[in-house]
Design a protein that fits this description.
Length: 133
Amino acid sequence: MASRFVYMVNRPVLITIIGALFLIGGLLYIISGIAAILNLYDLDMGSLDTLSTSAVGVTALVIGIIYALIGYGFIMGWKIMWYLAVIFTILGIIISIPLVLVLVGIVTLIIYALVLYYLFRPGVKEFFGLQKA
């Protein structure tokens, strides 16, 4: 147990913050996915029927579970979660590119780019066991 405590103390602070953000984002996706599946709110997307709403809900639920796992894995220092975070961050950048015409899209793109840059820092890769000290 003592070695695990030392391991947790050596975690970079930003990894904890990014992990918490992934967890919060995952929980929000999960809640909205469940709400869509149960048709608890109207998506107001024209002729969107119940089956389509459920498909959107299931997709949001799956993404939420993956995001929550990434967040937990970041906090625990799991190597595989570094790879998943890189993949999902790149996907976030790709999705944000068409949204740069709005201020939110620019901010999102900048945040994703900074997270991707940070994930490739030597100390972060060392924490996840991707390179030696």
